[in-house]
Design a protein that fits this description.
hydrolase, GDSL_Rv0518-like, 419 residues, TAT_signal, signal
Length: 419
């Protein structure tokens, strides 16, 4: 198999407004209107509840793949009896034409295979239609699809793009092998034999919801590459939000929250980095997601270390306050994570270390967030607190290996997520 190349062309996010069928989503927050949360499907929802089980925040655009079928592999955090999928053309500049869309469970014991589990292939529809056109700057949510979707299961979301729809909205750093069939509509094929190319990005698909009998809601992790998973083992689901989901699944059923990963590698709080800033994408990637009860914010290291560098801790504090204000307006609890050390990385300086520690002091002092996850205290080297412990370092002195990701997730107080 060959990996397909990618290119970024980031521009400002519009907000997502959730709904069912062929409801178009997208520009409300950009124009000051509130995005809606998709949480009802008529009579059936009266006895059950929609919950977000997976997310990938749009991080930029890539070259289109005309004539291809794109088989995205996504992993559920919680399960349900029905499913719906969010497809995004939010960063596109032309209408996105989808010739077909399907969903299936990935074949058991084959986490790196494009093969679907026999009997699980389903056609996705949008307002009853199999073929749709998504305007530039918008998202759509599929019709509900009856399918038993277990927790901690890989799903195959396959989209066929028959023509050139312009820049493709994608999540660049999926840390997941996804599959491409470059020779036409292969969306309904179970064997996966036609998927001879691979990519490590997710194309167009940005969310999956499931229908559940309980309503504990979901947790969103808003962050940068440390949340996106850089440094962890690819195609193994060992990012810290993955481990957090594992911990939550061990709780009683009425406390098993879904976990949505809104990490974007290179993201910043205040300025556009890779993708819009955390403030600019808050509506689209957090507030409009399904059933959100709690937000964990792990942002700020790129503001400190990357040019133009933020040298004023108060500016980051003000950004945190704005996130909390907007989340509280939606009834969402916010947990703030301290900024982890990056001593030894090429961008580290004594001045930037002072800013990092000052910001962490603001976070720990209270008054900013509803609760604090002190990630810095968990991973720093006691003998050199400007650096992480060697056991957690994949070698770049900034990101975390699997052990470091696990340490972060295991330090989160689960009672802070459901108060």
């Amino acid at each position: 198999m060959v990996e397909v190349g990618r290119r970024d062309a980031c521009r400002a996010l519009t907000a997502v407004a959730g709904a069912l069928a062929l409801t178009l989503l997208g520009t409300a927050a950009a124009h000051g209107g509130p995005p809606a949360t998709p949480d009802r499907t008529g009579a059936r929802a009266a006895a059950a509840h929609w919950t977000g089980t997976w997310e990938a925040a749009a991080s930029g655009t890539a070259a289109p793949l005309p004539g291809a079928s794109i088989r995205n592999v996504v992993r559920t955090s919680v399960g349900g009896t029905a499913v719906r999928v969010r497809v995004s053309n939010r960063l596109g500049t032309l209408p996105l034409v989808l010739g077909a869309a399907t969903l299936a469970r990935q074949r058991a014991n084959a986490p790196k295979s494009p093969q679907a589990l026999s009997g699980t292939m389903r056609t996705l529809t949008f307002g009853g239609r199999k073929k749709i056109t998504v305007p530039a700057g918008r998202d759509v949510v599929s019709d509900p699809l009856t399918l038993n979707v277990p927790a901690a299961t890989n799903l195959l979301v396959t989209l066929h793009t028959p023509g050139d729809s312009g820049p493709a909205t994608y999540h660049r750093d999926a840390l997941q092998t996804n599959f491409l069939a470059l020779d036409g509509n292969r969306a309904t094929e179970t064997s996966g034999a036609a998927y001879k190319a691979t990519t490590t990005s997710w194309y167009y698909v940005t969310g999956v919801d499931v229908l559940r009998p309980q309503a504990p809601g979901s947790v969103v992790a808003l962050g940068d590459s440390l949340t996106d998973g850089s440094g962890s083992t690819p195609s193994a689901n060992r990012r810290w939000p993955d481990r957090l989901a594992e911990r939550l699944r061990a709780l009683p059923a009425d406390r098993r929250q879904g976990v949505l990963n809104a990490g974007v590698a290179g993201n910043r709080l205040l300025l556009e980095g890779r993708g819009p800033s955390a403030l600019a994408r808050l509506d689209a990637d957090v507030l409009s997601r399904t059933g959100v009860r709690t937000l964990i914010v792990m942002e700020g290291v790129n503001d400190i270390k990357s040019a133009p560098n933020q040298t004023d801790p108060a500016a980051l504090g003000a950004a945190y306050r704005e996130i909390v204000r907007r989340a509280h307006a939606r009834g969402i609890r916010v947990v703030g994570a301290t900024i982890t050390p990056f001593g030894g990385h090429g961008s580290h300086t004594a001045a930037r270390e002072r800013v990092r520690r000052s910001v962490n002091q603001l976070i720990r002092a209270g008054g900013l967030f509803d609760a604090v996850a002190d990630f810095d205290a968990v991973v720093r080297d006691p003998s050199r607190p400007d650096r992480m412990r060697a056991a957690y370092d994949p070698g770049d002195h900034l990101h975390f290996n699997d052990a470091g990701m696990r340490a972060l997730a295991d330090s989160v107080d689960l009672t802070d997520l459901s108060r």
